[in-house]
Amino acid sequence: GIGACLNLFSNELLKAQDKGVLMKNGDSQFKIVFTLAVSARECIIGIAGNGLITVIHGAEWVRGKRLPVGDCILLILSFSRLLLQIWMMLENTYSLLFWVIYNEQRVYILFKTTVMFLNFSNLWLAAWISIFYCLRIASFTHPWFSVMKRKVMGLVRLPLFFSSCSSFPFSKGIFDVYVNNSVPVPSSSSTEKVYFSETNVGNLVTTLYLGIFIPLIMFMLAATLLIISLKRPTFHMKSNVTGSRDPSMEAHLGAIKAMSYFLIFYILNAAALFLCISSIFAANSSWNILCKIIMAACPAGHSVLLILGNPGLKRAWKRFQHQVHLYL
């Protein structure tokens, strides 16, 4: 249970302190344990949700069935998020418990490059699926929409290409980690290790532009166009319905609500990622920890929304829950 997890984290924290592996930076054990417990729970929910979507659509693809374009993009997105949340659990554990190991230059670059690639893939693929639904559902007649409808699946490699371009600079030293072993502790005769990083601002700006701002703008435009397109017939249906609510109107309202939630999740995720990359807050400050919690929560929350909004996925999720309860 959660109590056992907290005890385990506390024991690991004490062991790390005894071995001198954990950086003594004045943070309370409670903050570290709380962060690990909350982010781990969010990641586990995300792993379960995205894992379910990946298994269901992946099994259809393995059996040789031709997946619709939307399901193909959703399969790639869910698999990317599955890897992201597994890696985030690993990074959070090392960054909060094992500072000395985590801040070795090669280890730090490995963690940062991988987590940035997966985060950028998440943003780009989420923007791409938003564009796909906008093109499929929106009632716009401009010729550009017809061209994009035909090419959207063929261009799905672009998000992965841009994600690679955005994360590659991290492998070449956007951040250089330094350590000062002799910083005096106030009101004490002892010293502590303090880690800090130097940022290559030019590479960082390029990375933020390619990895966050471009997909964010694309997503917001697609989501806004889709919501506007869905609202028009909804208002028309509302004016014509006099008795019970029309099922078609209910479907439109549900789609508007789901897209609005998706938009909120996306903006929060992009903002938290931007703040983390920019190193505005100290590594283990409360604000930085909040950003990490948001980054773990948003992909998990959206996977839950996707499952609840899809009858087939919802039935599979209920069967999965039933099997888990039987096993436990």
TrEMBL record:
Transmembrane helix recorded as keyword: yes
Pfam families assigned: TAS2R
Domain of life: Eukaryota
Main location: membrane
Localization annotation: Membrane
Transmembrane residue ranges: 108-135, 208-230, 258-281, 287-309
Membrane topology recorded in Swiss-Prot or TrEMBL: Multi-pass membrane protein
InterPro entries in alphabetical order: TAS2R (IPR007960)
Keyword Membrane listed: yes
Keywords carried by this UniProt record: G-protein coupled receptor, Membrane, Receptor, Sensory transduction, Taste, Transducer, Transmembrane, Transmembrane helix
Signal peptide positions on this chain: none
Full protein name: Taste receptor type 2
